[in-house]
């Protein structure tokens, strides 16, 4: 009896939550779970992008071996605390904003329809919104992941002489803010926005479009969701990867030995990379990113859909109808209120 009461209590609590809160929770859980699974690949990818001479010659397995020897298992998760601290609110905002923008577009612009263009637009704006709110955490995550411990002295290599080593998330925030203020915390946000608008839009576009071609009978299968999410992430990432490389370079400019002191713009970074190392460097680490993105996006979309089902989030068409009904009832209530007050008098 007691267990049944607890289950009923949990059911009432879940059903009493607003839809946007459920979407926030579902998105946060999905993002945190997916990011933790691929954290080691994320660390190696960042080192490939920013420490090319040191790690590219080692290759994927060699890089894993070096990190394991010099830093141990925890080395694969360096900067992952900041990554989780960023990805949970980022994913929560991203998924929730996507649902909200989708509803607003349907209600405000009925002519757009409910096809792939809607998912592309809603996903793009949702990605931009999430980036603006959580970018400083991504910057901190990259700076912490960039630091590499030496096997003999356990100090940090590759830093400018007298450059302070970041001890953790709070220390990195504090020193970055003291050094350059708010602008320092948003260093590299431009290529992030350039990249996230097409990437987020394409990711949702491909995922929803692929699901539309699956029969209703198999649409809720976890395997189908994983496959759709994998292809969506792979295609979306391929088109926008050079901007991700530029963003990482901008984030660690102050830590690079070769840095002349002048902070470069997104286009200057891209041109500099092509001139010095060729256009292939714009896709440095892409193979690792495929290994990371495929499971990350697949797991993210799948866990999000599973969490929505667990939290009893209604179907998208149902939520749109609820919002439309509530909006249409408000003017009616306002119109009827004078007559109610007259009858009360």
Automatic annotation (TrEMBL):
Q: Where in the cell is it found?
A: Mitochondrion inner membrane
Q: In which ranges do the Solcar repeats occur?
A: 18-104, 114-213, 220-310
Q: Does the keyword Secreted apply?
A: no
The answer to keyword Magnesium applying to this record is no
Q: InterPro entries, alphabetically?
A: GDC-like, MCP, MCP_dom_sf, MCP_transmembrane
Signal sequence bounds: none
Q: Mind listing the GO molecular function terms for this protein? A: coenzyme A transmembrane transporter activity
Fetch the SUPFAM superfamilies from UniProt. Answer: Mitochondrial carrier (SSF103506)
Its BP terms in the Gene Ontology are: mitochondrial coenzyme A transmembrane transport
What Gene3D superfamilies does its record include?
Mitochondrial carrier domain
| Primary residence | mitochondrion
Q: Name one GO cellular component term.
A: mitochondrial inner membrane
Q: List the membrane topology term(s).
A: Multi-pass membrane protein
Which superkingdom is the protein from?
Eukaryota
UniProt KW keywords: Membrane, Mitochondrion, Mitochondrion inner membrane, Repeat, Transmembrane, Transmembrane helix, Transport
The entry's family comment says: Belongs to the mitochondrial carrier (TC 2.A.29) family.
Q: What is this protein's function per UniProt?
A: Required for the accumulation of coenzyme A in the mitochondrial matrix.
Q: Which PANTHER family match?
A: SOLUTE CARRIER FAMILY 25 (PTHR24089)
This chain's protein is named Mitochondrial substrate carrier family protein
